[in-house]
Amino acid sequence: MPPPEMTPEAMAHELDLLRRIGAGDREAFKTFYFEYSPRIGRFLLKMLKHPERVEEVMNDVLMTVWQSAAQFDPAKGRFTTWLFGIAHNKALKSLERERRYSVEQAVDTRDDADGGHPLEDGPEAAQDPSTPEKTVLGWELGDLLGAALDRLSLEHRTVLELAFAEGRSYQEIAEIIGCPPNTVKTRVFHAKKKLHEWLERRGYSPTLLAQETLS
Amino acid sequence: MNTQPQSSAQEHDTVRELLPWHARQHLEPSEQARVERHLGECDDCADAFAEDVALAQLFDRRAEPAWQPSEAHFERLMAMIDAAAEPTAAPAAPAEPGLQNRSGRESGRFSDWLEWLRTIPNPVRWTLAVETFAIAGLAMALILPRAAQVPPEPGLFQTYSQETGATPAGAGPRLRVVFAPTTTVVEVLTLTRSVSAQIVAGPSALGVYTLELGAGQTAETAIKTLRGDTHVVLAEPVTGP
Q: Are strands B208-214 and B171-179 parallel, antiparallel or unpaired?
């Protein structure tokens, strides 16, 4: 769901927390942790896909907040945009580290792809183009969006999640992922196109899917 | 059918890219007015907008993955933060005891090297150390096959049931471990092997290693062993959110 617009009171609370964290106040940091980590965790889960990796990246994000809270300048943007930017950056670094450390695993996956026996059920099955009808029938309709998102690249998936799930403006997304606003708009456009194409191959469109999941 | 005049093709493209944020009502008032004006003239964009509204509904209705904060995780986090903060005090600390009595050019060079090493961020330092060890391991792997060709000493023999040692790997539970900043690479590897584990990830920016225990090993036993060692600052099982 998109984040609600912030009230002046909520904004003051946020800035007060940051000021206290910047001064090394552990209680304030704890309050911040319980208020904000669920949103960051949800975003990280979508980016990283593997829950066991989330805690490690979450720790890196929170560590950065602990160390840099005093440097946050509210005149430069929303705090949550800054926070999501840190999370995005740390998640990318984690994925890069994982890629370097899992060469052996990657070989296994390639072997698996050649053999046509997916390691996991669910979203992985969506990547097998030989049985599209079967996989659609095997899903709950609500899962179809998740399966379609899993087929997208990390870049495409991330901008769609930020635009549609997190309700971020294109200017905020540009800040979070560190690219020009026009690039964000173009990326979302192409990501949607790929998502639509994948759904259409299975006889669905977002409108049709939304109607069927409503009924 | 697209009814927009040819001259407004650029406007069509511009508005089309703004539709997701119009569906989410996240446009500036001027952009919103521009989009609404165009939607009244362009059937293609009106259809695309309907698809974006439906897509937004699908995102709203799906089951979101959840991360649950906990007191236990917060305590682990603070322990890591405290452990990571320790090296910042290192420059003010006296020199290594073993180096204090050394003199001369060689000692000076070594001190310079240590100073240089201290300027490198901890995670990078560890990465360099691990990579150096990996290179040494590769060199050993090249040498060992030749050594294996040397006939065994008379009277020595092995059976198939005998432990070959050095096969800790995988498929068991995972642990998250933070070593004390003074722990050497050899000590890290020795400790890892002592619990029949291997390093599968790390060190992270916080200096956290992820260890994977061998099949049949229990996390409880390994954690007890690790926590009993003074080089280990933190040892916790990896759990989902």
A: antiparallel
